[in-house]
Amino acid sequence: MFIPKHIAIIMDGNGRWAKRRGLARYKGHIEGAKIIKPIVLHCNEIGVEVLTVFALSTENWNRPKLEVKALVKLIENYLNNMDEYLKYGVKIKFLGDLSIFSNYMQNKILQVEEKFSKNKGMTFAIALNYGAKDEIKNAFKKILLKFENKELNKEEITEKLISENLYTKTFPMVDLLIRPGGEFRISNFLLWQAAYAEFVFLEDVLWPDFKPEHIDFAVSEYSKRNRRYGKIS
Ligand code: IPE
Ligand code: IPE
Ligand code: MG
Known about the structure:
The chain is an alpha/beta fold. It has helices spanning about 15-20, 25-35, 35-45, 65-80, 105-115, 130-150, 160-165, 210-225; strands at about 5-10, 50-55, 90-95, 125, 175-180, 200. One 3-methylbut-3-enyl trihydrogen diphosphate binds near residues 14, 56 and 181.
């Protein structure tokens, strides 16, 4: 079995999971948040280097106010309980335009990242107010500023430099992208980083029903893929 260095997951299907049970959509988000930890621990155990999960997109703000409020509250609660990850030795990172969140949440995020920064295990990255197009736009701005300040010249604008100016900075490229929930799209997640990712779409699984076994299934599918990178074998 080949273990991907970087797994990315679009955690989709919470709303439908709740609706099927006659519950409010936010209940699906609450259930969905509970199952993140076993997935993180499983990926850490099998030797994944980076796990990036899509928790809130730049587009999700267009949902009804009450749902958005519930999502932000849930993220805040999650941030306040991250100490439960301490004993597993994982590193924690947040990706996205975090300036949209309250000062309280931004400080909390910095504290969490700092607290886990010396760990040697897998990097668990949480994408919040993340949009790949927004990320690439911000990278353009950062690079342009360095260019204007004469810190770099045109020839120094390489793919590596662009990668380093994304939120994922030095993360390896995404090897395996998993999307439960039945949609076959990328929804503005890691467009650059997933340039050569293998995709596993789990049609019949909604995120709150996602189990470590689904990671194993996706990794076994990944192991069967022939990654040619444009070559012929
Ligand atoms: C994913 O579940 C969670 C977020 C986008 C925050 P959804 O809320 O998109 O669930 P569905 O797709 O409507 O079922
Ligand atoms: C993608 O799911 C975003 C997250 C899982 C956080 P969406 O449910 O927002 O994606 P679309 O709208 O179906 O493309
Ligand atoms: Mg969805």
